[in-house]
Amino acid sequence: MRSALALMLGVVVMAGAIAAGWYLVGALRGDGAVPQFAAAHQAPPSANPPAKLAAKEGAKDDVEVTGAIGPKPAAPAPVPAPAPVVEKACANPDALGVSRVVEIDTTGGPGFGFQHFKQFDFLTDKEVVLTFDDGPWPGSTPAVLKALDDQCTKGLFFSIGKHATYHPEILKQVLAAGHTVGAHTWSHVNLNGKKMTEQMDTDEIEKGFSAVKWALGTEPAPFFRFPELQHNPAMVTYLGTRNVAMFSCDIDSHDYKHDSTPEKVVSTVMTELAKQGKGIILMHDFQKRTAEALPTLLKQLKAGGYKVVQIKAKSTFQTLPDYDEAFAKEMKLPTASSRPISSVVQTVMSK
Ligand SMILES: [Zn+2]
Question: Which CATH number is associated with domain 99-117+124-316+323-336?
Fold first, then answer.
């Protein structure tokens, strides 16, 4: 009797254990566990909310603008649509062209350009990368695009967010021509500036990317260049958590200097290249003199035996929804309110 009772008790305990085991397995397999895991991986590790979008039009005096930022045009920017990338055959048999295309895995935020980052020496002798900052800008950016197109070669563009909102149609042309587009902050503020807080620096970076994404109608490359090459250490770390590659340079064309000329741009680049043998070249599609220098510079690169390496990203930049929303709100007000009444209200019938 006692053994029968013990047997029954044992069966009950075992059944309970099996049931508990299946319950555990079910819970682990259950739908609830997977989205939590995925969400944890999707969330940016240290993304701060945009507590203050410092570069609001009304608050722009708060930020120290030290670089090439152009005046805001009177006309509002239209809402852009995605741009198709069209690859076409090269019509120029003597073109500089592209000798090599490299794809960069931006995980962890690698840095390139020996002026600041010396870990990844990916260029071989005579190889150059053409980079252009501060656009898009009417006149100069289309002229840069034409010069590159005439030589069937490709560049890497770091757009200022504000400029992207002024001229989204030009930034679309950059992407449509097959070039790579990254970001260069919202308002070209020096991120090492004394008035800048970590939150303001973060806002400058994130809002810049959101603006470039809006202008392109698609995600930009996770590539960033610090204004004036001012590498703020906290932001270098932050960009690492956002998986954004940072680009310094090897050869500075000094095309932003007031006493620079198209001739000086060409001679500065060619002289430095003769010394260094290769490198990432820093130029500005914002500068008219650079646009004027480029046809000659590209011909001299070809004649000198230099080869262009095109840079692409393995993945795209994922903007933060908070910044996208804040940016969209800001864009809406001035866009709608600055339209002329005749384009908003039209008489379609009158007696
Ligand atoms: Zn710049």
Answer: 3.20.20.370
